[in-house]
Design a protein that fits this description.
With about 160 residues, the protein is of the alpha+beta class. The protein has one helix and ten strands. The strands form three sheets. Strands 1-9-5-4 form a four-stranded mixed sheet, with no helix packed on it. A hairpin with a 4-residue loop joins strand 4 (about 80-85) and strand 5 (about 90). The relative contact order is 0.28.
Length: about 160
Amino acid sequence: MKTFTLSMAVAGMAVLSASAQTEAERNLKAFPPADQGMTRHVLMLPPAEQEDSLRVELQIGKTVKTDAVNRYFFGGSLQAVNIEGWGFTRYVVSDLGPMGGTLMAVDSEVPKVDRFITLAGEAQLMRYNSRLPLVVYVPKGVEVRHRIWRADPEAKVVPEG
């Protein structure tokens, strides 16, 4: 009996996963192809328990050769754009601006290293939603990476003071 119940639970999860993926794929029709000079990046998130406690961090940038000492960043911003008639949001970086950074002195004999340099500013945290693709449009040659953030399941009380 336990084997049957476990098999039913696993089969149910597979159906749930397939139906959520199918819904996300259907919703992808709302997102137009990339304009000339741009690329479209599509992130299909797997279903998860308590999706409201998860966030997706987008990291947008390029891998470039730099010194290993200074901190670098690209100018530009990630804009949320509403898709008319659908109510969905797509994210657009229209231009990756010039690279800036700190100016610490570096030994000219030390070889440069490959580093992934991202847009300046705070991390871009988006809502986790497995039923809708997360779609980002960026200029050609720009990478889109992501990380999943999980909230602590227990909220802590902040003392008065």
